[in-house]
Structure formats: C-alpha cells, structure tokens
Write a structure and sequence with these properties.
Length: 284
C-alpha cells in the first residue's frame, strides 16, 4: 500500500511570510511595468523564463520583506546575464511607503561616457599640491634672491591653508598664542615645507618619489633597509600573533640613478646610443 505524504500546513508563519513577500513583489511589478524596465525584462527573459514577469519574480523576490518594504535595494535586478542591474540603480522610500527608483538609461555606456552615464574624473593634481608647490617655489626664490623676510607672510599663507583645513596649529611670523612660530631662516623653512609635502601628499601618485629625485635626496632616503610588520611569520610559530607586529626588514633598496635608463630596444635599433652610466652592467 502506497504511503500518503504528510499534508503541508499552508498557514505556518514561514508560508505566510512567503505569500506576503510575493504579494508585495507583484504590486511592485505592476508599478514598473509601465516603464522601460518592462521591455528590458522581456528581452532578458528570452530562453531563461516564460516572461519578463517570471524573470522579475525569480530575481527579486528575496529583496522584499513581508511588511511591504524593500529590504535591500541593491538586491533588485532588472535583467539577466552580465548586465544584471540597471546602471547606478538607486532607491528610496518615503514615510508613506512610496518607492522611488532612479537609474541611468539603457543607452548609457560607461566606456564611452554616453547617455546618462556620469563620468567620474580622477584627481590628477590637488589644490593642496598647488599651494605647497607655490610656497616651495617662492621660498626657493627667496633663498636665491635674499628676499625671505619680504616673502615670508606669503609663503606661510599657503602652508597655513593646508594646516587650517586639517585643523592643526598654523604658523606665524612672530610668537602668537595657539600658533607655531615659523623659522626665520629660509633654509629651515625649506625643510618645513618638504615635511608638509611628505605628510599632506603621502602615498599619492608617486609624488614623494619624484620630490626626492628633484631635491637630489633619493640616494640618502631610498637606500637601505625598509621596515614593516613581520608578514613572513607562520601561524605555526610560537606567539605568532605578537610576532606579527614586530618591526621587520621587508626589503633592502638601492637607488640607482636620477636618469632613466635608455630602453634596450632603442639601443638595439640605434647603435650610436650609449646607455646612461649608472644603468650599465655591474653598476646597478
């Protein structure tokens, strides 16, 4: 005699939650089917689901909550394959529960910057670098011309713009409460500006490396041992957690030359070219 499987209770809290989420998702789909998203869903459903509606439910049911809210806007999908989401989809819900979606149109092309796609520009040169470069240039001019006293306020003005933004004490020509008295010697001021550059422009686009090259300090600063945490420690080693933070030499460097080497491919093409001295074999 064939056994009859136990009847599944359709009124468990889990089943009721699923049905509530389903109803919320259906109502949401009714709202978007009058938008261009319906066409995107229909095209995406080809050979995957029976309709755009079926694809929407398959992809998005987990984004809805039983209380009628959208739990996670980032879980909303409006197509399939590689392009699973509308470009830069953003959603918001007001106090009445009205959902507003913003997205960029289907003609947007990030590679070409077309359509509604908004190009995001990278910072090639920050205003802080311009301020510090100007202060440095004026200070170097003052050293050569002997005009530091006349130019000191102007130099400090642009150094202080950086420090003011950072919320740290500014420099002053003479003693002032809450400020640091600036050096009266322009050579000392040079070191101060270089330190400001090192801190403000730390880890930005190789600026530190090029600063050291133009100051002719590279062989003093870049030669020798470089330290970091002990990344070579093994979990099997005793007390490895504390030893990981031990100051350890991770690399020994040698600065070769202020000149770039001539590419070997260029030398092979033109035998009249001679490699710069520091880059010849045996000198590295």
């Amino acid at each position: 005699m064939r056994s009859v499987p136990d009847r599944i209770d359709p009124n468990t809290s889990k089943q009721q939650e699923v049905r509530s989420r389903f109803r919320v998702a259906v109502r949401f789909y009714q709202k978007i089917k009058e938008t261009p998203l319906k066409g995107i869903l229909e095209l995406s459903a080809d050979k995957i689901c029976s309709s755009g509606y079926a694809l929407f439910m398959k992809k998005n049911l987990k984004a809805f909550r039983a209380n009628g809210k959208i739990g996670d806007f980032s879980q909303l999908h409006f197509s399939a394959g590689k392009r699973q989401q509308a470009y830069y989809l953003q959603g918001r819900m007001d106090e009445r529960g009205t959902v507003t979606l913003d997205w960029e149109n289907d003609e947007a092309n990030p590679k070409e910057g077309s359509g509604d796609y908004k190009n995001r520009h990278g910072a090639l040169c920050r205003l802080a670098e311009i301020y510090l470069s100007y202060a440095e240039a004026l200070n170097e001019y003052s050293i050569e011309k002997g005009t530091y006293t006349a130019n000191q306020k102007e130099i400090l003005k642009y150094v202080n713009l950086i420090r003011e933004r950072a919320g740290i004490p500014e420099y002053s020509v003479s003693a002032e409460e809450g400020k640091i008295t600036a050096p009266s010697d322009p050579v000392e001021m040079r070191e101060l500006i270089r330190q400001e550059r090192r801190v403000e422009l730390n880890c930005e686009s190789g600026l530190r490396f090029n600063d050291l090259r133009r100051w002719k300090l590279a062989e003093k600063v870049l030669d020798g041992d470089f330290y970091g945490m002990n990344a070579y420690i093994k979990v099997s080693d005793a007390d490895y957690r504390n030893k990981y933070y031990t100051r350890t030499v991770y690399q020994t460097r040698k600065f070769i030359s202020y000149w770039w080497p001539i590419p070997q491919d260029d030398i092979d093409k033109n035998w009249n070219l001679v490699q710069t001295p520091d880059w010849t074999v045996g000198n590295q």
